[in-house]
Amino acid sequence: LRPRAKASTPSLPSGSRWTDEEVEALVGTVEAVRRSGGKKEDAFDTLVKGALSHRSLSSIKGRWYTITRNENGNGTGTGSQPKRQKKGRKKTTSDSSPCSSDEEENPHGDLTIGLPKSSDGWIYPESEDILLTHPAAVHHGETVKKMTIPSHQRLLRVPNYRTGADPHTFVLSVSRSTIPNSGRGLYLTYRGPDAQWKVPDYIDLGRYGPHKASDIKEDFLMEVKNFVYRDRPSEWCFDAPAPRKTNGANADQEDSEELEAQGLTIHGKKIVDGMIFDITDDATGEVHEMAEKTLLPFVNEVTVQGKRSSRKPKQVQNIDADHHNDGRLHYLLRRGSCFKRNEPMELLVYYGAKYQVVRCGKYPDDSDASSEEGRSPVAMVEGRTAGSDIEDMSSVTNPPSQDNSVAVSMTASGHAIHQSVCPSCRERSTKVCVKTTSVLSGYTNMRKSIFTYTEKDVISILDFFIESPPMESVPRQRMWWIVDQLHPYLKQILYQKDGGKMPSNVKEKLDSALDLFPREKKDPHHDEDMRAMEKYQHMGVVIRKETKKSGFKTGMVEQIVLPGPGSGPRVGDGDDEDKDESMPKKYLVVYFSGEGEDVVTEDEISEYSLTNSFGVMG
Question: How many CA atoms lie within 13 A of 120 on its CB side?
């Protein structure tokens, strides 16, 4: 899930790559000095002799000044950027502007360390929706052909604090993104009195979410929704406000209790640890109307390729995400960002390292990019984000794995998520190839999570399906699969001590959810439901197959294997249309406990399948 954006760190050249722990030590020291008003020289000396003693003095100084310079200009600085003399002719007065600077470029813009501790410190502009007929509206011309573009734009105004003259006005509009293959993006066009405008402080662009009670979900329910819609909703999710970190043996319990003690309630829901803000429609998996009206979901993520390559536009982060005092997630225009009058500039955010699981899982890549020092790179993808229109995007490579699978995250139940390399690409052991199966929320992980559900969890999931069943047939079939798996789980596991007898209210909800698929004959979606039921009838089936070397292996059918171009099979994503219906279908089976995978036929599935037994996966 996309996490709350945290303070991002610049990738400045300083010899070997700085680790997250080193950067956190440096940032923490700077913040401590700012809060306490202590001497920066003493704090710097402590870092040099302590946590960063293995780093060169020049490297530490560069990072120190990069961070502390962000505090200058508002009277709270803990340090200053040293003046550097440049050879050659000095700039004349006419060349100077609020946006000109001799400072070394930071790929992520200014650091977010300057974010106010409270939303009381944000600038709140006046905002109104305008149409293309408005004089200030932005016309992007031919670039938006064949794209669905919102019919409105947003006009915002902030006071001119510097001169007190006409307010600074700017327009938010949607057009084709500058990031290759990223579909639509959100642009800001400055319409104010200045030739160039440097954003004076963090400006609130509005609420990203949640917009209604159904946008707030517990993690297990969000995992279910991601499974149903094959991880589409995960691209627009943020974590709800997290409790303050504490230390000690009971840290997790203390964190949870503290969050509850805060009494944070949004849209009538009490926020507890692990909740997710989800701005997608429960019936479609796409961004819902209330969220799209803000235009903020069209903000894409800054990418390293775009900054490093001379063939692509330079990208600079100019948006930060932060929680308002009321707990809602807002997008902020970053202080220090620069805009030229009447020149549209794309707005870009950076989601941080925790978002890497979504990057790795959804957009397998066959590029030559490689991870550094065996770690998954951060922000090295051109992933489909808020405004994207296509799904085949590039991602990142992963560290080598001995069993041809890469653990990339954890499910809500705490089980490791694995991505499996397709059988025709086993030799490419150093990366996950284009043909990788996308199992972020695959059948295996979903079934493991089901094994952990309480009665309350089951009721919540059934209510979720009954109230907002998917409209499309394929997600509806995946919903039905979950409900079908709940039936043996309830009888054999959850209510085992009661002889498998379910409470009447649970049984009634279970039956109602099962009746949702396929839809009745008179329903216009009936025929499509029947096709989906036939096509995916073997998905999620558990098989137990005997091998000569290691005895029996148990696994689950995860994907349909399609005929690939040239030689070798191609693993489908679950929605692929068969090129030749007359060809016998084959399926990819992923074995449990990292035992690899296999391709089997329909006859083999019938021979080796295990039915009516849920505990085999326990």
Answer: 2
Beta-carbon neighbour count of residue 131 at 10 Å?
9
Which residues partner with 280 through β-bridges?
A: 287
In this prediction, residue 424 has a pLDDT band, given cuts at 50, 70 and 90, of very low
Average pLDDT, the chain: 73
Facing residues of 237 across strands? Answer: 278
Per-residue DSSP letter, 52: T
Tell me how far apart the alpha carbons of residues 161 and 339 are, in angstroms, rounded to a whole number. Answer: 17
Angle 566-568-569 from CA coordinates, rounded to 5°: 110
* CA–CA distance, 193 with 177 (Å, rounded to integer): 27
Whole-angstrom Cα distance, residue 441 to residue 448?
11
Q: What is the largest CA-CA distance in the chain?
A: 89
Q: Assign 514 a pLDDT band (cuts: 50, 70, 90).
A: very high
Within 8 A by CB and 6+ apart from 364, the residues are 395, 419, 432, 433, 434, 435, 436, 438
Quote the tokens at residue 232. Answer: 């589409």
The CA-atom distances, in angstroms, between 163 and each of 5, 194, 391, 535 are 33, 11, 47, 67
- Chain centre distance of CA 603: 39
pTM of the model: 0.71
Read off the pLDDT of residues 553-573 as tens digits, 9 standing for 90 and up. 888 999 998 765 554 555 555
Q: What is the DSSP string of 286-316?
A: SBPHHHHHTSGGG-EE--HHHHH-TTS----
Q: Which residues of 62-101 are buried (b: 16+ CB within 10 A; e: fewer)?
A: bbbbbbbbbbeeeeebbbebeeeeeeeeeeeeeeeeebee
For residue 591, the surrounding DSSP H or E stretch is strand 586-591
- For helices 473-489 and 443-450, angle between their N-to-C axes, nearest 10 degrees: 40
How crowded is residue 533: how many other Cβ atoms within 10 Å of its Cβ? Answer: 15
Residues of the chain with pLDDT > 70: what percent?
A: 62
